[in-house]
Amino acid sequence: MNCKKNIKMKNKKITTFLLTAAVGIGAFSMQITGTALSLGTEHMDSSVMTVQAAAKPSASSLASAVKKAYGENYWPDYQLDKNEIKDKYGVSSSWYSSAYAEVPMISAHVDQLVIFKAKNTASKKKILSAVKKYQKDLKNDTMQYPMNRLKIQGSKVYSNGKYVCFFMLGGTVDKSLEENGSEEEIIKAYQQLNKKAVNAVKKKLK
Fold first, then answer.
1. Least CB-packed of 40, 79, 156, 190 within 10 Å?
2. Strand ranges across the sheet with 96-103
3. 101 contacts 113 by C-beta, under 8 angstroms
4. Secondary structure, 3-state, 65-130
5. Contact status, residue 114 vs residue 130, Cβ threshold 8 Å
6. What angle do CA 184, 76, 181 make, to 5 degrees?
7. Inter-axis angle of helices 146-153 and 121-139, nearest 10
């Protein structure tokens, strides 16, 4: 009789031990799984945020790419603030989320780098209209230095997505072309110089 009781008690202890072990293993497994899922979610969120940030560069970021493309032939050296931008281009700071405008400090030069990142579609239309008007007025200004007149004619207004740009860059054309070329040839040469800025922005926005 005592022998049977002992066997039953041993069986109960073994069963209790196995159940306890099973519960412990399950909890440990759930903890590992939860940790892995948590780490996976954090990694995923971080990756998404990085991609989104890289897909929407600021106007300054695009300007840096353009400057790099021109190297020593980049002449603007005075950055305008938002009030100067409004006075010069007629673009209100309420229309853009970021802007970069740089001109030469020497008045004899006309090279300019202007980039706006519009807040929305309606703002982009306003900015594009203002920049085109600025370019038109500049082309019609008869008080410009003769050496700058053709460079102004070769200036470029460019838009891509939310961005509106005005490029008048590259320094000067080849000296022999400047001395012996026709006005049409010189204007085309300046247009080609501004294509370098367009290509730099396109590459950055890919």
1. 40
2. 78-79, 96-103, 112-118, 163-168, 156-160
3. yes
4. HHHHHHHHHCCCCEECCHHHHHHHHCCCHHHEEEEEEEECCCCCCCCEEEEEEECCHHHHHHHHHH
5. no
6. 20
7. 150
Q: Could you tell me where the DSSP H helices lie in 116-205?
A: 121-139, 146-153, 175-180, 183-204
Q: Rounded to an integer, what distance in angstroms lies between the CA atom of residue 80 and that of residue 101?
A: 6
Which residue has 């041993």 as its token pair?
10
**Residue 165 β-bridge partners:** 115, 158
Q: Which amino acid is at 21?
A: A
Residues with Cβ within 8 Å of 86's Cβ and at least 6 positions away in sequence, in order, are 92, 93
Tokens of 187: 């204007």
Cα separations in angstroms, 139 against 54, 91, 154: 36, 19, 9
User: In terms of C-beta distances under 8 Å and separation of at least 24 residues, what long-range contacts does 31-37 make, across chains too?
Assistant: none
pLDDT digits (tens, 9 = 90+) for 89-133: 999 999 999 999 999 998 888 999 999 999 999 999 999 999 999
Phi, psi values for residue 169, rounded to 5°: -135, 175
Q: Is the pTM of this model over 0.70?
A: yes
